[in-house]
Amino acid sequence: MTSDSTVPGGDVDPFRNERTSRDEAPQFVLPLVVRIERDAPPARTDALETAARAVLTILSDERALGDGEWAQVMRDWQDARIRKVVRRARGAEWRRAQALPGITVTGKSAEVRVFPPVPLDGWPKDLARLQVSGTDLDDPEPPADADPTAPVLWLNPDLDMSAGKTMAQTGHGAQLAWWELSDEERTAWRQAGFPLSVRTAAPAQWAELISGERPLVRDAGFTEIAPGLTVAVEGHHRVGELGDEGRGPVG
C-alpha cells in the first residue's frame, strides 16, 4: 500500500466531532450538485451511488493529482476536516453549474456534478445561491440486492437523513475506501467505472458491520443528525479483482 493510500494526516479521524489538529488548518468543502428537475427527479439510491462515484472521480482525476490545477486545493481539503455539501439545481441553475470547472457523473437516472474544494466561506456565487434543502428523493421500486463483487456502502438503519445529507455520507464512505487501496487497486476500480452499491443495512447486520475492521464514517453531527456512525464500507478489498469493463464517468 502506498503512503498516500492511508487517511491524510495520519490516523486523526477527519469526521469525528472532537476537536483535532485538522481544525487548525484552513477549512475547505467539496461541493456536489445533484440535478433534480420537477418533472423527472432521480431515484434516491441511484443518486446516492452517483454521488459516491463523483467523489471517487475527482479524487482520481489527473487535475487533482501531482502538479494538476486542482491538486493543491485537494491536498488542503484533505488535510483539514473532510466536508462535503450537496446542493440541488434544475433548469438554468443546472446549466450555470455545468459552466463552472468540475466533473459531471451520470447514473441510471441521476446526474451529479462535483467541483474542486472551495473555502468554507468562499463558494462561487452560482453555487452559493443553490438550495441545500429540498433534496428528498424516493426509489420508485425497492433496489435490487447489492452487487457482491463490488464495494457496498451500508447505511445505518437507525438514521433518517435527507437524500442530500446521505449523498454526502456515501461520498465520505467512498473516500475512506479509496484511502485504503493501493495504486494498483485504485486503477482497477477506476478502469471498471467505480462499481459500488449503496444499501440500508438490517439492524442485526449493522451491528455486525460496525464490530469489525471495516472503514466507518463517523459524522460530526453538525447538521440533521447527532454525532455517530452513518456508513460502513464492505468489500473494498474486492476492487483489485475487477476487470476493465464498466462505464466511466462523464467529464
From TrEMBL:
InterPro entries (UniProt xref): Pep_tRNA_hydro_II_dom_sf
Keywords associated with the record: Hydrolase
Comp. bias regions, Basic and acidic residues: 13-23
Top-level taxonomic group: Bacteria
Protein's recorded name: Peptidyl-tRNA hydrolase
Entry GO MF terms: hydrolase activity
Region entry Disordered, spans: 1-23
